[in-house]
């Protein structure tokens, strides 16, 4: 059958009906076998939905399709229009890409603006270009002007025609023109300069000019003389708005083609003239301004006698679009071949959602829909509202609500649910954290997919590429480089595997690399020159020097890092190759370059940093290369030879990859998360909107202050806020079973109330008006709203009795709460006592001293193999500036171990201390600044000469040295025997035969208030017991910068007994965590003279964090895990017994001894 021509507008309130009439037309008037059906859509969702419908079995009476979806071409309207222009006017007359396209016009303006900015008329542009970052400003200005001129070509072509003719006017109507404001007269002049700049007839290829020539040509077209290559049928589906220019083209095509425009119309009656209250008030105020003294009279009955308030408030865009369509629809062209033009039908469901949808359909005013609220209304779940404390809680609540819905209705499938948010990139981490954490084997798993994510921040290769293209501004911290190496194609390019990364990380940490390539790189970031330490080249030189010389001499004040060696040493070379490549490109990318040079360099960068792409990366690399090529073409066409900075090129290319098209995945058979976008009103059984917060939706996009269209609205103009309002209406109408709205209604900080979007407020107000609550009753909108607690583990989700509004499927929280509740009546649950550990190897003194210092840690580390790293959160990206306590101790310990314990000649002490400190500097352990590092060295060295003199004084009292004596003790435990085996070192003997150990402590033994720091004596105590077990009696002298201690000799039998007792307790600590902590234990013992109450108070104060002091529990992750507070440590009454067993012997030995230097300590 011959395909009839004509431009037909088909209206329906349900997209299913528009789809059905589309299928009917395709069936009734089939195209030839090799012809394509051409569909114009604005979103991939609509395209896929139509494809699925057309592919359905043609025998299905409800969802009849064609049985196949083939030979179909889906296109965006703008792209289709340009193809039609080329087809009708000739490809030799209309280029494949117009020089007036936004992207190409941008680069022409980048070149033109500096050339003309000095002229008086362009003074506003010159003013914008002044200041810092002029190249960035120039590009931003060119981009905005190009975008505005692009909009003018679509929505104000008549203005551009007038400007081209030398008239600086804006056309209001055919018979009315206004002069362009003086401050904006640069726009017409710049448009004329653009036209003049485009040579060889290119000026006639502006969209406005091409459109005019197209309409003139099409006046003579018809079914007989239809231009070749024009499609015989064009179906425009699901577009909520089109500019007048596009409608002109479609109407002209109707003379020789069949053009079907399917319009999603929420109302079956003429509603093009309804107006919202605020718009009517504005009009009335303008009328009074023109005629002062006119009374302002607004009659509510006349205002909305035949209007629906939600349709008036949300439907302005659709209203203007339908009014615009009235001027194009010509029923006489198609009445003879299709009867059905308006396909309106009400919803048959008896729910609140359906009632409002039907009211909008029938244009029912409020007073006709209002009735008293009933119990059935309260139980109606077709419209629900959820108020939470943040986006994460929104997603957690949604997950629970969907699980409940799937449980209640077995016919509901994941593909029947769509979740839309204002910005999907903001919600993606929360969606992944909630939906992605459930294992597919778990019965709570909900299959989901996320659409509309920009590749720029999702594809690992693009994330790495953006980091590489940001080298000039990057600090290149350790985390930055390791993030790059996490990207497989980049890592493999340098011969590295994922298994190599932990070893590299250890070496990077050990070589004290923090950030920066070298001193020059740091200087480029406005730091002083010469700061080389802790940079990548500094650390790599340490690694390579260590590989070459081991623990050899320093080279150019750089100390070797000797851990690099063996078969794994190749990793250092590969890391060095990677860093050298980074350095080479940092230098190349830091300078502005011409576009052709940038294009060549960017392609080379891809080859130098990434392996040949495989799998999904093949398409990505192809897109990258294509983007570079298109950008270079645009620059060459614009004759742009200026040098451009990297950031301009980077932003353009990466943004180009983020632009969406019709190839994004949608309707994948899962719960679909997407951004709220126009033309996505596909019907779903459940439509969920998250993030409906005041200020976030409708989204705001302030117009540019030089946008002349903002002062002259025309039907068909795009407005972000009106788009969002109509999108909200479309989403509301596309819901079949339930419309779900969620917003952040409470502050996460102080629980204060936060308003929902004005659109949500309007809907809630409307519900309360049409379902009127009796006096004293809650409004229906309140009854339909669920306010959720701040935390997902709140006890409110696990009530013994309730209305079922609050619930959760996160059973983990139930287990946690049950465990917590049990602690309120019983002791904190202890880990079950494990069977005794069998040791085939002897233990050493170091294990006993570690046990005394951290008795709870031993259970987790030695028995369970669990390590809680409290330093995991410490940044490896910052160089040392001010040394913390641990770093100061490390420096002091280095000086003590390398100098004080080795020095025999005090005459060279300071020289040797200086050399040792310089070696620490060469390892990158001190401040980056030379001045600060020098200060740290002087502060560390200052007290050591006096300590050295005291140490030498003791050595002279015990001149005879016995270097080693073996120690071996056995302890029988059941059928097993535990052996302690080690060496007692550095025994010394005096002239009188007395034995002693002399130890230097890098830590202070007393605090500023002259109290012993008992935990610093635990390691010396173990060695003291060992010495007396083999050579009693032995006195142990421990010297420190602040305080000395002498451990008194004990008998050999007592020493052996105490060591064997500690061995037994050590075994006990491997079966269960012991309820004791050393600092808390000594606080308990120190308060003993004051009585039990003071002892408990002192112990509690030491264990728990107080106002000015950090408690022992907060300093130890193992204690936090098993004994979170003092009550849990104290509760079973064993604390005091373990204090007596483990720590009292040391306390009794030292108690009463006075410090050798001054005063005593407690």
Can you characterise this structure?
This is RecBCD enzyme subunit RecC. InterPro entries: DExx_box_DNA_helicase_dom_sf (IPR013986), P-loop_NTPase (IPR027417), RecC (IPR006697), RecC_C (IPR041500), Restrct_endonuc-II-like (IPR011335). Keywords: ATP-binding, DNA damage, DNA repair, DNA-binding, Exonuclease, Helicase, Hydrolase, Nuclease, Nucleotide-binding. The structure is a single chain. With 1162 residues, this protein is of the alpha/beta class. The protein has six domains: 6-91 and 214-271 and 315-341, Rossmann fold (3-Layer(aba) Sandwich), CATH 3.40.50; 102-205, Arc Repressor Mutant, subunit A, CATH 1.10.10; 273-306, no CATH class; 352-454 and 665-702 and 719-790, P-loop containing nucleotide triphosphate hydrolases (Rossmann fold, 3-Layer(aba) Sandwich); 456-658, Orthogonal Bundle (PCRA, domain 4); 845-1150, no CATH class. It is 46% helix and 11% strand. It contains 47 helices and 22 strands. The strands form five sheets. It has a seven-stranded parallel beta sheet with strand order 12-13-11-14-15-10-17. The protein has a six-stranded parallel beta sheet with strand order 3-2-6-7-1-8. Strands 18-19-20-21-22 form a five-stranded mixed beta sheet. Strand 18 and strand 19 form a beta hairpin. Helix 4 (102-116) crosses helix 6 (134-155), helix 18 (391-408) packs across helix 19 (424-434) and helix 27 (595-609) runs antiparallel to helix 28 (616-637). The longest helix is centred in the first third of the chain and has 22 residues, at 134-155. The relative contact order is 0.08. Mean pLDDT is 86; it is low at 280-301, 823-828 and 1153-1161.
């Amino acid at each position: 059958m011959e395909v009839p021509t004509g431009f037909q507008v088909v209206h329906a309130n349900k997209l299913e009906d528009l789809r059905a009439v589309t299928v009917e037309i395709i069936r009734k008037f089939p195209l030839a076998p090799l012809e394509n059906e051409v569909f114009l859509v604005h979103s991939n969702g609509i395209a896929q939905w139509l494809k699925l419908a057309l592919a359905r079995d043609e025998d299905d009476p409800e969802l009849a399709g064609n049985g196949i979806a083939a030979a179909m071409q889906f296109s965006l309207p703008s792209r289709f229009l340009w193809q039609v222009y080329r087809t009708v006017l000739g490809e030799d007359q209309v280029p494949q890409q117009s020089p007036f396209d936004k992207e190409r016009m941008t680069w022409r303006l980048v070149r033109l603006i500096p050339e003309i900015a000095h002229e008086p008329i362009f003074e506003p542009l010159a003013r914008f270009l002044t200041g810092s970052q002029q190249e960035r400003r120039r590009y931003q200005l060119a981009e905005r002007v190009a975008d505005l001129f692009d909009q003018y070509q679509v929505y104000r072509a008549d203005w551009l025609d007038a400007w081209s003719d030398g008239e600086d006017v804006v056309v209001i109507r055919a018979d009315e023109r206004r002069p362009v404001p003086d401050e904006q007269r640069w726009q017409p002049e710049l448009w004329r300069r653009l036209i003049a700049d485009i040579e060889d007839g290119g000026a006639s290829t502006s969209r406005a000019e091409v459109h005019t020539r197209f309409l003139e040509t099409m006046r003579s077209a018809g079914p007989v003389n239809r231009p070749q290559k024009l499609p015989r049928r064009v179906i425009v589906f699901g577009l909520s708005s089109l500019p007048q220019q596009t409608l002109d083209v479609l109407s002209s095509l109707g003379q020789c083609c069949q053009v079907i425009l399917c319009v999603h119309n929420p109302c079956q009656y003429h509603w093009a003239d309804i107006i919202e209250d605020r718009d009517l008030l504005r009009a009335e105020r303008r009328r009074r301004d023109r005629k002062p003294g006119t009374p302002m009279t607004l009659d509510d009955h006349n205002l909305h006698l035949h209007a629906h308030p939600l349709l008036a408030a949300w439907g302005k865009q659709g209203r203007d679009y339908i009014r615009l369509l009235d001027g194009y629809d010509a029923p006489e062209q198609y009445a003879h071949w299709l009867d059905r033009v308006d396909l309106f039908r009400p919803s048959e469901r008896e729910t609140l959602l359906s009632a409002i949808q039907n009211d909008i359909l029938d244009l029912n005013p409020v007073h006709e829909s209002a009735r008293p609220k009933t119990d059935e209304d309260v139980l109606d779940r077709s419209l629900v509202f959820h108020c939470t404390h943040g986006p994460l809680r929104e997603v957690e609540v949604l997950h629970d609500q969907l699980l409940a819905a799937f449980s209640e209705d077995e016919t509901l499938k994941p593909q029947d649910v769509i979740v839309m948010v204002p910005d999907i990139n903001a919600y993606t981490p929360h969606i992944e954290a909630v939906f992605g954490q459930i294992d597919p084997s778990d019965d709570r798993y909900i299959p989901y997919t996320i659409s509309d994510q920009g590749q720029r921040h999702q594809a690992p290769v693009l994330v790495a590429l953006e980091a590489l293209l940001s080298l000039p501004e990057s600090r290149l911290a350790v985390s930055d480089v390791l993030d790059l190496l996490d990207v497989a194609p980049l890592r493999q390019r340098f011969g590295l595997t994922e298994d190599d990364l932990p070893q590299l990380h250890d070496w990077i940490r050990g070589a004290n690399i923090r950030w920066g390539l070298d001193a020059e790189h740091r200087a480029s970031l406005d730091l002083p020159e010469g700061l080389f330490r802790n940079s990548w080249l500094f650390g790599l030189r340490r690694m390579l020097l260590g590989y070459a010389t081991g623990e050899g001499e320093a080279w150019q004040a750089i100390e070797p890092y000797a851990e690099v060696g063996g078969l794994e040493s190749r990793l250092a070379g590969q890391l060095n190759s990677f860093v050298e490549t980074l350095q080479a490109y940092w230098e190349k990318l830091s300078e502005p370059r011409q576009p052709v040079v940038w294009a060549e360099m960017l392609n080379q960068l891809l080859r130098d940093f990434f392996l040949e792409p495989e799998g999904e990366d093949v398409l990505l690399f192809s897109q990258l290369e294509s983007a570079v090529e298109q950008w270079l073409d645009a620059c060459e066409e614009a004759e742009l030879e200026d040098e451009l900075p990297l950031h301009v090129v980077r932003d353009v290319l990466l943004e180009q990859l983020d632009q969406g098209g019709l190839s994004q995945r949608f309707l994948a058979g899962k719960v679909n998360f997407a951004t709220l976008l126009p033309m996505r009103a596909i019907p779903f059984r459940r439509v969920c909107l998250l993030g409906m917060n005041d200020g976030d939706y409708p989204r705001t996009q302030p117009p540019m202050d030089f946008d002349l269209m903002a002062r002259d609205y025309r039907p068909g103009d795009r407005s972000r806020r009106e788009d969002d309002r109509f999108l909200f209406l479309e989403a509301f109408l596309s819901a079949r079973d339930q419309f779900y709205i969620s917003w952040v209604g409470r502050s996460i900080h102080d629980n204060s109330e936060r308003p929902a979007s004005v659109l949500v407020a309007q809907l809630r107000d409307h519900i309360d008006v049409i379902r009127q609550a009796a006096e004293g009753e809650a409004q229906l909108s309140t009854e339909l709203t669920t306010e959720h607690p701040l935390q997902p583990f709140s006890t409110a989700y696990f009530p013994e009795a309730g209305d079922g509004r609050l619930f959760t499927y996160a059973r983990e929280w139930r287990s946690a709460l049950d465990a917590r509740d049990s602690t309120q009546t019983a002791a904190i649950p202890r880990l079950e006592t494990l069977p005794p550990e069998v040791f085939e190897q002897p233990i050493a003194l170091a294990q006993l001293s570690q046990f005394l210092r951290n008795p709870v840690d031993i259970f987790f580390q030695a028995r369970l193999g669990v390590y809680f790293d409290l330093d995991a959160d410490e940044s490896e990206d910052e160089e040392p500036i001010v040394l913390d306590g641990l770093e100061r101790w490390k420096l002091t310990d280095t000086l003590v171990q390398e100098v004080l314990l080795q020095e025999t000649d005090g005459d060279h002490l300071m020289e040797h201390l200086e050399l040792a400190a310089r070696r620490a500097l060469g390892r990158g352990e001190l401040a980056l600044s030379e001045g600060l590092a020098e200060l740290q060295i002087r502060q560390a060295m200052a007290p050591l000469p006096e300590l050295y003199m005291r140490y030498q004084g003791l050595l002279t009292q015990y001149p005879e040295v016995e270097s080693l004596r073996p120690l071996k003790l056995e302890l029988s435990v059941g059928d097993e025997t535990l052996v302690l085996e080690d060496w007692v070192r550095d025994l010394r003997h005096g002239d009188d035969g007395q034995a002693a150990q002399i130890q230097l402590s890098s830590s202070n033994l007393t605090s500023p208030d002259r109290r012993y720091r008992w935990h610093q004596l635990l390691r010396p105590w173990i060695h003291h017991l060992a010495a007396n077990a083999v050579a009693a009696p032995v006195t142990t002298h421990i010297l420190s910068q602040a305080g000395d201690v002498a451990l008194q000799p004990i008998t050999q039998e007592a020493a052996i007994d105490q060591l064997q007792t500690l061995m037994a307790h050590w075994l006990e600590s491997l079966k269960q965590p012991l309820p004791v902590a050393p600092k808390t234990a000594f606080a308990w013992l120190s308060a003993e003279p004051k009585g039990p109450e003071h002892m408990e108070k002192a112990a509690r104060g030491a264990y728990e964090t107080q106002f000015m002091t950090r408690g022992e529990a907060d300093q130890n992750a193992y204690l936090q895990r098993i004994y979170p507070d003092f009550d849990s440590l104290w509760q079973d009454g064993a604390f005091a017994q373990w204090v007596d067993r483990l720590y009292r012997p040391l306390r009794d030995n030292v108690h009463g001894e006075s410090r050798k230097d001054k005063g005593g300590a407690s």
